[in-house]
């Protein structure tokens, strides 16, 4: 190597370790099988994501039937059906990476990794609520948080004592919230703007709960499929490392 250039003589003098032709063929076939399995898993994952998307689009467009009857949909304004608030500042040093009896409550932030889960904390702020990212690259991302949880200050929070904060309403709001994000400087979707968003939801809370269960089942399948795909990719990487040591 000279002045950042790799000359032919350097390449010719470089030693590499290769298995015998028979072994190369066997390894090649093994890798091909892994690639095939990974492709199948990725295809199944994409199909599940498309299924979820199709269900939500049908519901949002008021074309949904339940027991052969058309579901009654209503237009609602966020501020009219939810109490709008925000999470609190929490130092990373106060959060546990694993759930324990002392730190049982999930902490959610604006990150996309692991669906926003930062870790666990000893106290909770909310229960069965909707969060959205108020600013940054993920501004406008809406999530339903089931059970008791803590939310950091980069999340806005929607609360409902009437059960209107559920998986379905969160997903339907997520379909439109990104349109209201301000991209002047740092992307933002502040409380006052969120409050003015109008979107469609089923009129009956019972119907909302029913389809929330359906969506949660699909999301659970997506999560399992993501883990299966990731596991295969890691196993392929591990085998390649071990085969060529």
| SSE arrangement, N to C | HHEEEHEEEEEEHHEH
Give a quick account of the main beta sheet: strands, pairing sense, barrel closure: 6 strands, mixed
- Percentage of residues in DSSP E strands: 15-25%
Strand order of the largest sheet: 4-9-7-8-5-6
Tell me the span between the first and last alpha carbons: 25 Å
Spans of at least 5 consecutive residues with low confidence: none
Helix content: 40-55%
Question: How are the SSEs placed, and which strands pair?
Answer:
Blueprint: H1 8-12, H2 21-60, E1 65-66, E2 69-70, E3 73-77, H3 78-81, E4 83-86, E5 105-108, E6 117-121, E7 126-133, E8 142-151, E9 155-159, H4 167-177, H5 191-195, E10 198-202, H6 205-243
Parallel strand pairs: 5-8
Antiparallel strand pairs: 1-2, 3-10, 4-9, 5-6, 7-8, 7-9
Helix pairs in contact: 2-4, 2-6
